[in-house]
Amino acid sequence: MASFKSKLLLIGGGGHCRSCIDVVRSTGCYDIVGILDVADNIGSRVGGVEIIGSDSDLGSYINQADECLITVGQVGHGELRKKLFQSVRTHGGRLATIVSPSANVAESTTLGEGTIVMHNAVVNTGAKVAENVILNSMSLVEHDASIGAHSHISTRATINGGASIGEECFIGSHAIVFNQCDIGHSSVVSAAQVVRRNIPKKSILKGAASIQASPVFVIAEAGVNHNGDQNLAMQMIEVAATSGADAVKFQTFRSEDISTDYAEKAEYQKANTARSESQKDMLKALELPEDNYAELVKHCAINNIEFMSTAFDIRSMNFLLELGIQRIKIPSGELTNVPFLRHCAKQKLPIILSTGMATFDEIVQAKSVLLDAGLDISQLSILHCNTAYPTPFEDANLSCITTLSKLSAEVGYSDHTLGDEAIIASIALGARIVEKHFTLDRNLPGPDQSTSLEPEELNSMVSRIRHIEQAMGDGIKAPSQSEIANIAIARKSIVASEFIKKGEVLSEQNLTTKRPGNGMSASLWDQVIGQVAPRDYVADEQIDC
After folding, report:
1. Which of 123, 205, 208, 107 is nearest to 158 (CA)?
2. pLDDT digits over 92-141, tens only?
3. Where does residue 443 rank: exposed (0-12), middle (13-18), buried (19+ CB within 10 A)?
4. Cα(26)–Cα(13) distance, rounded to whole angstroms?
5. Do 67 and 171 belong together in one domain?
6. What is the pLDDT at residue 367?
7. DSSP alpha helices (H): ranges in 309-420?
8. What residue numbers bound the domain in which 453 lies?
9. CATH code of the domain containing 516
C-alpha cells in the first residue's frame, strides 16, 4: 500500500526554487501541486513543475495544498520571504519544514515552521533554528547556536557554537561566524567574511575593497535635557528608539566630584540658565538620581535601543559599569584626564573618545595613554568634535575627520552645529559613529535645549543618514541592479547601414552602430571590420558574425 504524500504548494519560481524541488523530491514525502510566481511566468515550468498562478492568487490555491513552502531565494535581507510567510499564515495555510535525507540534524535541535535544511547541511546538538530559515547546502550550524526567523545561511557557511544570528539576516557562502558572536537582525555578511565580534543590527560586512564595512552607529544624545526628571528621560528613550537611532546616551556625574564651588559656567550655559548660579549648582539640578538608572536601562531594552551614558568621574564610571554598559564614552573635557583615561582603558570595553577643544598632539597623547593602559586599538573610536554650543559652521572643520583617520582607529563625529547638515556631510567623509543632541522641546529650560533637535528633526536626521549609507555603496564600479535593464536601451549594437550581400567585406561604409544594445556590442567594432559577411543583411539588421 502506497504511503500518504502531503500536497505541497511552492511560492517563488527562481533558481532557489529548483534547488528546493530537488530537496523536496529527495524526501519522498510530498506531491508538489504547483508554483506561485510573478504573473508573467504563469504556464512556464521550473524543475518540471508548472507555475500555476501568481503570488496574488495565494488565497485561491492554498486550499489545494496541505502545506506550503517559501521557495523565493534570499541574497540580502529577508523582507520578501517574511512577507510571503506571513501571507500564508494570514490565509490559514500551514508551512512545511523540509529536511534533506543527506542532511545531518541532531535530535536535540529545533527547526521552525517553513524552514528548509538542504543537502549535506549539518545542524548540531542544542541548535535552535527559527521559522522560514534557509540552511543551504553544506552549511554548518554548530552546537547551541541560534538562527533567527527569515534568515538564510548560505552554502558552506559556518555558524560556530553559541553564536546567534538575528532575524532576516543573510550569511554568505563560506562565511564563518565565531563562537558566541551575535549578528544583529537584518544584517548581511558577504561571502567568505570572518566574523570575530558582535555585529550590530542592520550591518553590512563586505570585502576588503568595501567602503562601508558596517552601518553608521547613531547616538541620540539625551545628555541632561531631561532636567533631572525620570519621566522626561523615559520619554526621550522612546523618541530615540522611534527615530531609528542605535543608542540613546545620557550623562552621569556627581556635581561634587566634577566641579569646585567657584567653577564658572560657559557663556552658552549662562545664556540658557540662571546667570547667578554656579556651575556646580547648575549641574546638581541636572543630575539623575542613581535609583532612576535601572528603570532607564530596562526601558531601553524594552524599546530595543542601547543604553549609553557618559561618565565624568571615576565613581560615576564604576556605577555605569555595574549597570552593564556595552561601551564607554569619554567626553571631550576628560581627554586630558590621565587617571580617568587609564581607568576606562582597564575595563576592556570599546571606548568612544570625543576630541572637542583638543589639538592633534593631545589626541595622540590620549590615544597612547589608553593603549598603554591595555586598550586594543580595534576597540577605540575617535570622534571629531567642537564644543561650542552651537558650533558656528565655519568652526565645524569637518576635514578633521579625514585627519583623525590617520590614527588607525575608527572615526566619527559629535555634532553641535544647528540642524543636521554637518552630521550628514560627516558620513561622506568617513564618520562611522555620529552623535547629536536632541530634546523633547527646545523651549524647555536647560543649557543644551536650544541647540538640540526636536523629535521630528531627529527622525529626519536618522532617515537621511540611512539614505546616505545606501548611497555610499561599496566602491566597486559596476552596473547596479536597477540600471542593468537600461544597458540594452541606452547602448548600441553593430548593424548594417545598407544592404550587405553574403561574402561582402564588412567595412565602415556598410556598418554603423544603433540602439538597442542587445546585439553585437559596438565595443567590438574593430574586430568586426574586415570580416566577411556570413549571410545577407538588410539595413538596420544587427550583425551576428
Report:
1. 123
2. 999 999 999 999 999 999 999 999 999 999 999 999 999 999 999 999 99
3. exposed
4. 19
5. no
6. 97
7. 314-323, 338-345, 360-372, 393-396, 400-404
8. 217-472
9. 3.90.1210.10
